[in-house]
Amino acid sequence: MLQTSAGMQPALVTTGGTLRARRAVLLGGEAFLTGLPDYRRRLIPMASTIMLTVPLTAGQWGQVGWAGGECLSSYVHTTNYLTRTADGRILFGSRGAPYRYGSDMSEAALRENANFGWIRDRLLEWWPSLEGVEFTHQWAGYLGVPRDWLPTVHFDSNRRIGHAYGYTGHGVITSAISARALAGLVTGAPPDPHAPYLRPQAPNWEVEPLRWAGIRYVQNAFFRMDLAETAGKAPPFDAPLATFLGEP
Ligand SMILES: Cc1cc2nc3c(=O)[nH]c(=O)nc-3n(C[C@H](O)[C@H](O)[C@H](O)COP(=O)(O)OP(=O)(O)OC[C@H]3O[C@@H](n4cnc5c(N)ncnc54)[C@H](O)[C@@H]3O)c2cc1C
What we know:
The chain is of the alpha+beta class. It has three domains: 24-37 and 148-203, no CATH class; 44-145, 2-Layer Sandwich (D-Amino Acid Oxidase, Chain A, domain 2), CATH 3.30.9.10; 206-248. The chain contains six helices and eleven strands. Strand 10 and strand 11 form a beta hairpin. Helix 5 crosses helix 6 (239-246). The model has no long low-confidence stretch (mean pLDDT 92).
């Protein structure tokens, strides 16, 4: 819990004790921020899953034909992103467990076999020649996704509390940019007037159970839209509605 009032030192109250900050409390907890009352509707946790193959043989790479090692991504609605690693493996990431009621961040849901089976199947869609290839690592986690899919960086100089969040799965670079911007705000550097992420808060997500119903519907519809497209079929009848609701 955060304890603040203007002119006082901000404090972080935890089950283990209270931490008072001399200068500021800065929150960078990604999807875990949804556990704090002020952030419950600012973000939703969205699961993402990644798997790593064994190093491929020269023959396999010859068949795959990805000599340049470019970062690849497909524009299916459920998102696939791929990297060729320096030691000759394929790192394949895609969707994860569906949204859970009340932004529940279940660890068990992340580890369900179906999520990893989904990645295996997608890899074979890209390269059927990799049938039977083994994976050495698999993991999953939650991303913080705001209602408008845009990041937020803010420092409240009265309460001495700042936050940076909402990278929607692109946080490796964006979190570093946001952290620099946040440090600038705390130390009083003039803010970049053109930085769109400098705003107090992201808009709220809907209240439950509307949020659960809406997100689960869109996740299901995007899945059906991808299946239809892959099979060369016409999109499902509700594709325009799902696109309207689900695209940022
Ligand atoms: C499977 C997966 C794949 C991803 N792939 C990509 C990718 O390809 N490219 C990309 O750009 N981004 C990717 N991301 C997103 C990226 O990892 C994150 O956006 C980025 O790491 C966010 O950085 P951060 O510093 O804000 O938060 P994090 O790196 O998540 O750090 C937040 C920290 O806060 C801690 N924390 C949270 N709550 C508490 C609490 N109450 N008390 C104490 N500590 C707490 C957490 O333990 C964690 O260490 C991926 C994420 C996942 C899960």
